[in-house]
Structures are given as structure tokens and as C-alpha cells.
Design goal:
Rossmann fold, seven-stranded parallel beta sheet
Length: 820
Amino acid sequence: MAAAEGAQAAHLANPGAMGGSWELLSRGAGGGMARSSSRPLALAHATGAAASAAAAAASPHNADATQREAEEWRRAPAFRRGEVNISKLEETDGLIAVLSPWLELDSPDEGVRIDSEIALRQEVAYASYLGIAHVVLPAPSSEPSHAPFLASYARAVSACLSSGGAEGAPAGSWMQLSVRLPVSSTYAAQQQLVRQARASASSVSVESSASERSSANLRADNDWAWTTWERLRHLCAYSPRLSVALDLCAPLPPAAALARWPAEPVGAVFLPARAFLANAKGFPVLSKASQALLRALLRRRPPVVLSGVHEPPARHSRGVPAAYLQYVRHLERSAPPESAVDVFARGYGDWLQAPLQPLMDNLEGTTYDVFERDPVKYQLYEEAVFQALSDRPATAGTASVWVCGAGRGPLVSRVLAAATRARRNVRVVALEKNANALVSLQDKSVTEWGERVEVRFGDMRSAAVPPDVRDRADIVVSELLGSFGDNELSPECLDGAMRFLKPNGISIPASYTPFLSPLSSAKLHHEVLSTGANSSAGPSVGSLVDRQTKSAETPYVVLFQAVAHLAASGGRGNWEAVQHTWTFEHGPVENTPTVRDASGLPITNLHNIRSSTHTFHIPHAGVCHGLAGYFEAHLYGDVHCSIHPDPARGSPDMLSWFPIFFPFRDPLYLPAQAELDVHMWRCTSGRKVWYEWAAEAYLSAAALAPPPLGASGSTASAHTVSAGAQPQRAASGTSHMSEGAESLASATSSAPPFQNAPHTPMLPSVGLPGGAAASEPPSLGMGQPPRAASTNAGAVQLQRIKIAQTALMNPGGRSSWVGM
């Protein structure tokens, strides 16, 4: 972490007008040039001398000269030596440059926007010339009058990042641009301060009272910062060189809004002195909410820029200015220690890893070595075997335990340890198809296990079954689970392994269930598209779009770090934030209805096809970049193995599995109170297994409409309405659909009815307020059964309105699959 304060710019009272003085690339003298017909709008941002110069330039005597000077600058923008405070390469080492605060790229005045964009390109190009790697742009305005022109701000920034035609990009191909954003709307904060000042009936003026009060004691209820950032980065096509410089000068928004920022590319944190409170001794401290936010951001180690520390607020009476930096260092040192998983996987955060192909490829020794470092998983397996052996009568004789997919033998050792604890005699068969790992098994059989273990070479799907049932297994143990439970073909493998079980035998694991939850991560989205763009396969594989599509339709194993979970428990159906998809159960073949051939193997793999549909409640606005996948496995008895994100359900400090990520090629924006339908399929062709997934976004009627004005005279069936598509009746009794839907509109005697012509195409008139209730809609392909005529025209019970959807990802397994 780097904490810095601009030394050369410290004499400037308040560059950026948001509470700080940092290193400016130029001195802001551009405020003295009348660069548009409405230049007076920008004079408020200039220094006093610059404002005087602008007023002089506007006099009739100098009007022609000023206009000529302005046009000459527009034709060939160039700095004079006195207009910049950095001119040598040696002055830029480790420097973060802050561009002129008077740039108004989102000004309502087009002339100001044009001149600001010219000046932006000039300053960015000069920074590139000096080799400055990180440049901070002035914040867009939070005033409502500027909101319609935020797209112009984004367009100007995008033009700096990308080349156009014969012109190169002003930011080159390596410079990082950070948009400085206050953590909430400064306009709303100022209005709040003014209202409080007026209410206090202070003897001082309202404006001065408002400006002197601290924003550290205030709280905001707006989500302006993240909403603005989302619009900017989306318009800039998720450029990896665009980040946000989060400024804590404004009141903090609600916790849900703050929780998004650790998942965003925060390139710097601006921490003004007035964001600090004062403790009982007068030392500056941050509020609990600010501490939590800063600690979360510091995990990514962004630069922290302290400002205004040489002119501290009066309430900070002790230790300043050094106390500010000391406090930030204290927060950094007192961060919670890393978990065992974080230590084990250091450097793997948000790194995409393709799942294994365990049936097509033999694992390398280094891969086995990584898996065997997880003591938690093997402790759980040992406990499950211990309970299974303990449940056998002591007089039952020697138990036969088969370890299918024995690898280099860690499960075999745990089975023997469990037998010793349970005081049971066992004979273990270690079955392994990897000829290289077989050597390790044979070595351990000689040096450690002795005659209690028989090592066999073979594939559990094709190995011969002992003809005598007494020679079969009492317990079959396997560790074939993937990050999504079944994504490494555990069901297909165990179809073969269950043949070895006695009719009353036990499978460990007994069952496993995958889980899904929607996820937001701009970093993972960029990594997915970059993986496709940087494919080493060469141009012969297809276009860039084809490669990126293939990359976006591939599930990845990822240790999530810069992510935000979008769903929460609740909504109309009281949905869970993380939902189970399906379950695979394993046991003796005599207990399963699958049709098998003479060798005991299933004739087809169709019984392993699965599908699920989910509805998630999205309480706060966000962007869904894909789906996070987890699993829970029931090993035996009360022993479970889980990577569920809920700490109460997950197995702590387990290292063997990271979650799985199912990406969306195009991000899906979800407004607050949205509902996200997720569809997931597990498909098979007999030679391979693959997943397909898709999502649809809806807004509930309750989120769109005010409370009903009156009760309807009739109750209509619930509908889902999609813009441009016919209504579809909600299936009754489904687990993810509520019958008690909210009414979008109610017909009352005081409200004008919605006039709908009979038989309007794509919209049935029956049940609509003011519609022809007595007439029956013709068959227009809507899939709606006839309904009895109603004597009253009731309101249509609208559950929700469709607003967006993704494409079907990986149809037919065209991009990713696991070979059998």
C-alpha cells in the first residue's frame, strides 16, 4: 500500500473540490482561456487568477485575440512550460497523476464538453509521454442536470483508451485510467447539509454552516457511485485499463452498496482528512463502516491517497498530520489473519482453471501431490469409514473395502487408520487405472500396508466383477467429486463401481448435491474474454468472437476473491440465496432401477441427465457475470463434505476444491428487486458430458407499481409478461413460483380503465380492466386454455415483467465437455 500526499500541489486550496490536494498534472490554468461560448459555466472551477484572466479575455477589446487563441489551441493543443508542474521523467517514478479538476466531460453545455475532451486527450497524452502509468480523471458530476451527459463522459474516456483510425490512443496501450468517484452523491450530501443547517437556525449563513460540517457523521441513502461506475465501464466495453478511484469524501451509502466495491477494480482510494471522526482523545479515527470498507479494499493493495492532512479539521486536535497515516497503517496491520485456504492458494485468487478430464487424462504426480495436502478432506473420509465399520457387528468377520480410484494411496491409508480406530479387521482392494500411480501403490503395499491391501490395475467402469458375491465389497470408497459434485463424471464412474458392492453394501460418498448462486465479478468477466482473445491456438481456429464464445462457454474452477454475491434469501417465493440443483445417490445395483447389460453396466447414460430451474431474489442492483457453483456430499452417517459458501454448512479449511464458475458471455444487468431465473442442464451423448446454462431477468410487479388502489372483483390467474411476447401462465405447484402474486394494477371506480380492444394480438383481453370480459380470445398460439366468462372485469394478476436474458450457453457441448 502506498499512502501519499501531493507535495508540489499542496499550495492549492482544494483541487477537485472534493476535499484534498494531490499531485496535479497541470496547474489548472486552462480555466483562464475562454474555450467555448459558454465558458462562464466553468469559471467556478478555476483559481482566482485564472478567473480574472478569463474575465479580461471576455472584454470586447480582447475578444478577437481570445477566440483566435482558443481556436489555435483546439487545432493543436500544447502545453507551455508554466502550465505544467511535471516535466522530467525522473519526477514521475511511482507517481499517480491527477488531471485538471475543471474538466467537465459531462457538462450540459456541448461547447464545454468538446473543449474538456480536447484538454483530456492533451493531458493524457502528456502523461503518456512522461511514462506515468496511472492517471486519475476528475469525477463526473452528481448534479441531476449532468446525468443525461454521462455517456459523453464515457465516450471521451473510451477514446483515450482505444485508437481510432490513423490516430493512436492518447493513453497508449499500457496506461491505467481511474475515474475518481465519491462514494455517494456529493450533490445529495450538500443538499442534506443545507437542510440540516437551515433546521438548526444557526447564526451563521446556511452555505457556510453546511460546508463546515463533516460528512463523516452523515449517511447517504443513494447508490449514485456504483450506478455511475457501472454505466461508465459498460460504455467503455469493460476495458481492463479502466478502474475506479474511490473517494471517501462523501457520506457512506448503505452497507449493501458498499459491499459491491471489493468486487470492482478499485485502482486507488482517496481518503480526505474530513472523512475521519475524532476519538475521545482527539485523534482521527474512521467509523466502523469506513474501517470495514477500507480493510476489504486493502486486500487488493490499492494505493491510498491521504489528502487535507496539513489543514486538519478542528476536531482532530492530537497527533496530526502523522496520525492519519499511522491510523491507515494500523488498519493494515490489524487485518484478520489469512485462512488456511488463503495461505494454501496464495496467488490463485480469481485465476481461471479448466476442470480436470479424469477419464481421458492420467493425472500427473504434482496434481496428486496438491490434492494430498488437504488434511480436512481425508479426516472426513476416515471418519465416514470409521462410522461405517463401527456400525458392522464385531462378529461380522473381515470387512472388504474397495478403494476405487486409489491414486497414490491416501484413501487407503485412511481406511486402515479407520479400521484400527473401530477395532475391525479389513481387507482393502486398491483399484487404479493410472499405470504411473500404480507404481506408487505397489511401493506403499510393500513398505507400509503389507498383505492387508491388494493392488489392482483397472478401470472401475470395465473391471471384472467377482463372480462370487462373497468376494465383493462391503464398502466402496471413492474420491471422484469435482467442484460441482458431478462435473468430473463421478456418476458415470460410480455406475461401474457399484457393481462391486454386495446387495447390502455401502458407498462412500452416499450422495452429493450441486448448488448455484448468481455472481458478479468484472475481473472474472475480463479474464474469461481475455482467455479467448489470447488463445494460442492461432487464427485457424476461428475469429476472435468464436474464440471468446468458446472461452465464455467453459466452466472454470476459481478461488473467488473479487466477487459479489447478488442473491439474498427472500422475495415472493422466499427463495434461498444459494439453491440446490439436483442430487446423485449411489448404492448397490440391486437397489437401483437402471437397466443394465450382462456385465452390470447401464445400457445408456440417459439416467445421469439432469436439469433444474431456479428463481433468485436480487435485492440490490448489480451485474450478473455468471453463476457460482458449489457442492455438498453426504459421505456416511453424520459426516458431510461441503464447499457451500455458508460457513455454517461448509467444511472449514478444506483445500481440495475451489468453487466452479459458469460465465455469461454478455453481462446481465439486474435492477433492485429483480428476479433472476436460472436454467441448468447436465447433458450427455454417450461419449461426453457437458453443461448448458441460461438466465432470464424479471422485475416483480411489486417493484414496479404503487400499492393497489382497491380490491379487484375477481381473481385472475398469475401471469408472467414479457415485453414483445405473449403472457405465459405460471405452472401451479412449481417449487419456484408463487400463487399469491402482487397485482400490478387494480381497477377502481375512481381510476380510468385500461382500454383494450377485443382480441388484441399478443395480449388477451379477458380479465383486463375495461376489456371485453364476456368474449373469449381466439387461439393465437398463446398456449392459454379457455376460461369461463366473468361478470366483472378484474385486473390481470401480473407476477413480473421480463427485462433481459442471456443466450443459451454451450448448446450441444460445442465449447466445453468432459470426455467419457
